[in-house]
Amino acid sequence: MEVKDCELVGSAETYPQVTMISGAQVTLSGCRLRDGLSNAVWVKEKGQASLTGCTISGFHKDSAIDARDAGSKLVVSGTTIRDGKRPILGQDGATVEVKDCELVGSAETYPQVTMISGAQVTLSGCRLRDGLSNAVWVKEKGKANLTNCTISGFRRAAAFDAHGFGSEISACSTSFYNVDCIQSSDIGGWVWIY
User: Fold this and answer.
1) TM segments (predicted)?
2) Could you give the CA distance from residue 177 to residue 151 in angstroms, rounded to a whole number?
3) 7-36 burial, b if ≥16 CB within 10 A, otherwise e?
4) Eight-class DSSP state of 48
């Protein structure tokens, strides 16, 4: 399914604006998704979603985009995600690719990018800024790879945080501005910056 140059406004609690499950696929391009009480985009059970040139804002009760389950994939490029609880969440072995995007803001205890339970994210050429928690947080063997990204304005928590054995964050050619602490890790979590 393809959705182009549309605006999606609002959603009920527990009902995402776009849901892809059981292998379903969607491509959104040039769309504006805003002000929902659940996710903007939710993929699970090998569902797939591709977002290009979109703007996502105002998702204060849940993650803007959420990928769950092994085989589920979310690809986001040229998109701005702002003014919400948590821009990106990956769980249970899902794969997320983010390229040339801007993530602005997050709620106090919700990192901008969260990968848990073996989920993996690749960010390239992205700008992450002005969150009230971490820029990237991984746990339970979650993994994050960043290349040519800019991290700025994280003053209340470490930019990167890796929790638990097998959890890893690697950042190559990534710049940091106005960040009080770049990395934090505990019991077996690793953060690599080179």
Assistant:
1) none
2) 6
3) ebeebeeeebbbbbeeeeebebbebbbbbb
4) E
In the three-class reduction of DSSP (H, G, I as helix; E, B as strand; rest coil), residue 27 is classed as strand
pLDDT of residue 7 exceeding 90: yes
CB neighbour list of residue 11: distance below 8 Å, 6 or more residues apart: 17, 36, 37, 38
Name the residue type at position 181: C
- CB hemisphere CA count around 53 (13 angstroms): 6
Catalogue all structural domains in the chain, each as residue range(s) with its CATH number. 2-193 (2.160.20.10)
0.85 exceeded by pTM: yes
Q: What is the pLDDT of residue 9?
A: 96
3-state secondary structure of 32: strand
